[in-house]
Structure formats: structure tokens, C-alpha cells
Automatic annotation (TrEMBL):
The keyword Transmembrane helix applies. The lineage of its organism: Bacteria, Bacillati, Bacillota, Negativicutes, Selenomonadales. It comes from Selenomonas montiformis. The chain crosses the membrane at residues 31-48, 60-83, 137-159, 190-214, 291-323. Keywords: Cell membrane, Membrane, Transmembrane, Transmembrane helix, Transport. Coiled coil: none annotated. This is AI-2E family transporter. It is found in: Cell membrane.
């Protein structure tokens, strides 16, 4: 076997390495591409259903318009509840941190009190800065309008010509491996679609359940805790743990007994998500060990911050599938090579 026999595997490794490196060297471009692919993965099944009755371009346009209208409606509904509560939470945060410092557990431990005192001071400063910069944040959202328009256009063309683009990219590899590359692309897209759709469902379920718990218990800032819990579900393993600690700790300022009940609620919710919801939605399709997820999230956070933690699992999925494809191809080539050598020796044996 020669190096040229592994040409496709080498090209696959280099190609996906360069694609993933764009998140480090060109984050804005990578962000646009990633969000567009995310929307394309979510909306493709609907486009396929409409395509049986309508032209592909018209189907893609109708589905994308419907999605935008739905997103605007949901954003309006959520904002009407979340923004007032979040503003009140930011305003009350300095008082909340002072109450946290008076908890018996912190008072009894001088080490914890000293270490957390610096954290509380930083959080107070952050809360005041966040309140002052709310107008700036609103203006920055409008400044991203051009990026949103670009994302929608890219998504439309991905929905319309996704198969042609995928076929074109596969044709850039050696001809005899065209089917292999297409199969790899399909496996990656299917795995990412399963993961993303499942994460969205889990995030929505978690946010609704947390909001109902805090609302029915009469606890303040229910929509804030629901948003935190739902968002943190995008970061597997570590995210739910952080959200649970956040909710339990701040609930302790109301009543320590209620905080214990809240901790039990989060524990039950996490166990149900991980042992029932996750296996039902994702099953064994990703087959990622928790250690790989944790280390990937930590590495992603070190390299790209919060976006890196969010993108860690999709990156791991892509790398895993590419490595598996290269390894499987190597095994098949070795088997064919050994078989050809054996066939070549058989006439001599007679």
C-alpha cells in the first residue's frame, strides 16, 4: 500500500481541520456559516415535505418566512415576561449577594467567605455595568441586522441547493471515493440534526418546567431562572450543574428550606433529562463518553470562551465521524490488500 491509497483520508482530515479552524481565525464568518447550517438542518425536513408539491425554491422561501415569523412571535412573547423580570433581577442583584453572604454556611467558613467576597464584588460591578449598558446592548442588536440578513440569505440557498452543494464538494475528492465522501457528509449532517433538534427540545422542556416550578411556588425571578436553565442545557453535563447551583444558591436568600426543595427539584429534573429524555431523543446515535464531552467543553471554553463551550459537542461529533471513516477505510484497504496477496500466492502453492 502506498501513500496515494490514503489520499482521500488525508484530504478529509485536512479539509475538516481547516473548516473547524475558521472558528478561531475568522469567528464572524464562521458564526454566519454555523448559524445558517443550523437553520438549514432544522428546516430541511419541512422543505422536503413541501417540495413534493411545490418547486424547491418556493418551498425553501415559504418555510424560511414561516420560521422568521414564528421566531419573532416567540421572541415577543418571551420578552414580555423575561425583560421586566431580568431588569428587576439586575437591579436587586447587589441586595441578593449581600443576603448570600449572611447565610450560615458562608459565615461559618472564613475561607469561603473571603473567597466569595471578591466574587460578590465583581458580580455587583457586573450587574451595575449590565444595567447601564442595556441601551448599548439594544443598539448592538440592531447593528447585527446586516448579519441576520446575510444568515437568512445563506440559509435560503442552503435549503434550496444544499444537495447540489454537497455533491459539488464531494466531487472535489478522488472520483472512486465519491460515494464514501457523500456517505460521510450525510452521517455528519444526520448526527448534527439529531443533536441540535434534541438539544432544542430539551432546552424548551427544561425552561418551561423550571418556570412553572418557580411560578407555582411563588418564587421571584422565575423567567430568569428558566432562561438560565434552558440556555445551560446547550452545554451538556456542565451546563445543568451550573444552572442547578445558580438556582439553588439564589433561592437560599428567600428560605433555606425552600432552597433544599429547589435542590431536590433540580436533581430530579437533571436525572429525568439524562436518563429518560436524552436517551429517548438522542439514543445511541452520538455515542459520546461523558469524559470526552467534559474535556471538549473545557477545551472549547479555553479557546473560544462561551461560544466554544456551546460548539464543543458538535465539533467532537464531526471529529469522531471523520476519524471513524478514516479508520474504517484503512481497515477495508488492509483487508483488500491482504486478500490480494493471498490470491496472488495461491497459484504458487499448487
Amino acid at each position: 500500500m502506498h501513500l496515494k491509497d490514503y489520499r482521500t483520508s488525508i484530504l478529509l482530515g485536512i479539509t475538516f481541520t481547516l473548516l473547524l479552524s475558521t472558528f478561531w481565525f475568522m469567528p464572524q464568518l464562521a458564526f454566519i456559516i454555523f448559524i445558517s447550517m443550523l437553520l438549514q438542518l432544522l428546516l430541511t425536513p419541512l422543505v422536503e415535505k413541501l417540495h413534493s408539491r411545490l418547486p424547491r425554491a418556493l418551498s425553501a422561501g415559504l418555510v424560511l418566512i414561516a420560521f422568521v415569523l414564528l421566531a419573532i412571535g416567540l421572541l415577543a412573547v418571551v420578552s414580555s415576561t423575561f425583560i421586566p423580570t431580568f431588569t428587576r433581577f439586575i437591579t436587586d442583584f447587589p441586595q441578593i449577594t449581600e443576603k448570600l453572604q449572611t447565610l450560615p454556611l458562608l459565615q461559618d467558613s472564613q475561607f469561603l467567605n473571603d473567597e466569595l467576597d471578591n466574587l460578590w464584588q465583581e458580580l455587583k460591578s457586573v450587574s451595575v455595568d449590565a444595567l447601564k449598558s442595556s441601551l448599548t446592548l439594544l443598539l448592538s442588536v440592531f447593528s447585527k441586522f446586516i448579519d441576520i440578513v446575510i444568515i437568512l440569505f445563506v440559509t435560503f440557498y442552503l435549503l434550496k441547493d444544499g444537495e447540489l452543494i454537497k455533491s459539488y464538494l464531494a466531487s472535489r475528492f478522488p472520483t472512486h471515493d465519491y460515494q464514501r465522501v457523500m456517505k460521510l457528509f450525510n452521517r455528519i449532517l444526520a448526527a448534527l440534526r439529531t443533536y441540535i433538534c434534541s438539544q432544542l427540545i430539551i432546552c424548551c422542556i427544561t425552561a418551561v418546567v423550571v418556570f412553572l416550578y418557580f411560578t407555582l411556588r411563588g418564587l421571584p425571578y422565575g423567567s430568569v431562572f428558566a432562561m438560565v436553565s434552558g440556555t445551560c442545557e446547550f452545554i451538556p453535563v456542565l451546563g445543568p450543574t451550573v444552572a442547578s447551583a445558580f438556582g439553588t444558591l439564589l433561592t437560599a436568600t428567600e428560605d433555606p428550606f425552600v432552597a433544599l426543595q429547589t435542590a431536590g427539584f433540580y436533581l430530579v429534573l437533571t436525572q429525568v433529562n439524562h436518563n429518560l429524555v436524552y436517551p429517548t431523543l438522542i439514543g445511541k446515535s452520538l455515542n459520546l463518553h461523558p469524559i470526552a464531552i467534559i474535556l471538549g467543553i473545557i477545551l472549547g471554553g479555553e479557546l473560544l470562551g462561551a461560544p466554544g463551550m456551546f460548539l464543543a459537542v458538535p465539533f467532537i461529533v464531526i471529529c469522531k465521524l471523520v476519524i471513524e471513516d478514516i479508520y474504517q477505510n484503512r481497515l477495508e484497504m488492509r483487508q483488500r490488500y491482504n486478500c490480494s496477496r493471498w490470491m496472488a500466492k495461491r497459484p504458487e502453492d499448487h
